C-alpha cells in the first residue's frame, strides 16, 4: 500500500536567468569578471561580511574557491568552481543559502567588441518553501540582486574603471 508521502514530489522551481550585453570582447569581459571581481562586486550590499569585506577572490581553476576576505584576514567561502572553461563559461556552487545551489555564467562573443553574459542560478528545488521565501524576501530577492550585479559589472567594464581593464 502506498503512503501519502509516496505522492509527494519536490516543488520544481525554475532557475533565475539574467543576461546583459557588454561592449567589450569576450576574453576581456571574462577576465574582468573572474580576475577583478574584488574590484567591482558591491560587497557593502551583496556579501556576507558587508562593510568588513576587503576583497572577493575566484581561484581560477576547477575546484578553486570563491571567497570574500574580511578586514581581520578571515576568509569566508561563497562556493567552489565546478566548471572552468576560460573565456567561455564557468560555474560555481553557491553556499550562501541553507542548501547549496549553483551559479553558471556563459560569455558569448556576438561581435569582436560585444559580449553577452548569461547567468543561471539553479538548484532552488533543494530549498524548502520557507527557505526560498526567506532568500527572496528582500526587495526583489535574488532576481533583482543578480540584475544589479550584472548592471554594475557591465557599467564598470564599459567605463574602464575596473583595475586592469
UniProtKB/TrEMBL annotation:
Pfam families: AHSA1. InterPro entries: ASHA1/2-like_C (IPR013538), START-like_dom_sf (IPR023393). Residues 37-155 form the Activator of Hsp90 ATPase homologue 1/2-like C-terminal domain. Belongs to the AHA1 family. This is Activator of Hsp90 ATPase-like protein. It comes from Actinoplanes italicus. The lineage of its organism: Bacteria, Bacillati, Actinomycetota, Actinomycetes, Micromonosporales.
